[in-house]
Write a structure and sequence with these properties.
121 residues, alpha+beta, two-stranded antiparallel sheet, 3 helices
């Protein structure tokens, strides 16, 4: 009986990064806002780089409140979707390569979302 050799860690990482890229690139609004995601294991960190077009009040200058709310909503949706996809990949029920070029997996829908601003961003 011979066991199947495990894949090199770098190959697994590249495949998981590609799966995350597929998920993120399937939502055009994420590219419009310029949101980036950094994956470390099963954890994601979202970053919203500065861009002049995201400024709502040029006199302050402060981020538009809609951009802040959109960033929070997008990161919540992607994190929830990623945690589901991650579990599927870890269990072997999902091949990360199947996500590349495929339609975006079904994303959760926001029912209600409220942000109470304490000051400008």
């Amino acid at each position: 009986m011979s066991r199947k050799r495990p894949e090199p860690v770098q190959v697994v990482k590249q495949r998981r990064d590609a799966a995350l890229r597929s998920l993120v690139h399937g939502v055009p609004y994420i590219q419009f806002l310029g949101i980036e995601f950094d994956r470390r294991g099963d954890e994601l960190t979202a970053v919203l780089p500065f861009d002049e077009r995201l400024i709502g009040n040029p006199f302050l200058p402060a981020l538009h409140g809609g951009v802040t709310a959109a960033f929070l909503e997008v990161t919540a949706i992607i994190e929830l979707s990623w945690s589901t996809i991650w579990e599927e990949m870890e269990s072997g029920r999902l091949d990360p390569a199947s996500l590349e070029g495929a339609p975006v997996p079904r994303l959760p829908k926001t029912i209600d979302f409220t942000v109470d601003y304490l000051r400008s961003g």
